[in-house]
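// run 5 | inverse folding | seed 20
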């Protein structure tokens, strides 16, 4: 099989639209690799916070990024995230990281460093004669604009808030107050991510929009 026949699927969309679950499901179903680029930015945020760096200090953040090693596993069944050789798959989902990740992700030096790693993962999948599903916010527009298929996942903000609140509550039914707070946080992050100067959240011109609001996870995976 030639490299040109190996599919690269780029999936973008805002938080809570279902990217991670959908992408892992699609990759597993098609026997492809899976890359969560958002996890990379969260890992970098862990490094920045651990260094005691102000998230408004771009120069200091870039200095941390320059000396930080981040590795993401590509097994959709057990995605791993390593920061300087340490497993951070759980710690990257903490509330402190969530609050700071947008600011860290907007730093040009961080994006240059991680996009380079992300592109190398895509090339590694092609060279291994397997496809890869890559999720994030700028995959179809910046990381792999030549992707064979581009998907832009969306969902009603209220539904996204419920999903994220449920996820943050470790599967327990969230109370209305938690959902309301999560809803406000998602709207703020949407505005921040879409409005940043470097690699903003945007739908590629040739992306196919999939609205996950009224569908189950299995149904969305089948659509993709």
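// decoded
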């Amino acid at each position: 099989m030639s490299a040109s026949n190996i599919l690269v699927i780029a999936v973008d969309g805002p938080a809570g639209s279902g990217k991670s679950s959908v992408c892992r499901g699609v990759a597993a179903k098609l026997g492809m690799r899976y890359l969560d680029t958002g996890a990379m930015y969260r890992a970098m945020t862990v490094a920045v916070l651990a260094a005691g760096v102000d998230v408004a200090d771009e120069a200091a953040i870039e200095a941390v990024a320059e000396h930080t090693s981040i590795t993401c596993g590509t097994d959709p069944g057990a995605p791993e995230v390593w920061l300087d050789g340490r497993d951070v798959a759980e710690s990257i989902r903490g509330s402190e990281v969530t609050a700071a990740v947008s600011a860290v992700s907007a730093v040009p030096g961080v994006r240059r460093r991680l996009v380079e790693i992300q592109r190398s993962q895509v090339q590694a999948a092609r060279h291994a004669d397997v496809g890869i599903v890559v999720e994030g916010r700028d995959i179809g527009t910046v990381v792999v604009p030549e992707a064979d298929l581009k998907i832009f996942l969306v969902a009603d903000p209220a539904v996204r808030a419920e999903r994220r609140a449920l996820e943050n509550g470790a599967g327990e039914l969230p109370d209305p107050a938690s959902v309301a707070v999560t809803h406000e946080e998602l709207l703020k992050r949407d505005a921040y991510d879409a409005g940043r100067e470097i690699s903003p959240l945007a739908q590629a011109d040739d992306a196919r929009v999939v609205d996950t609001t009224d569908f189950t996870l299995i149904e969305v995976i089948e659509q993709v």
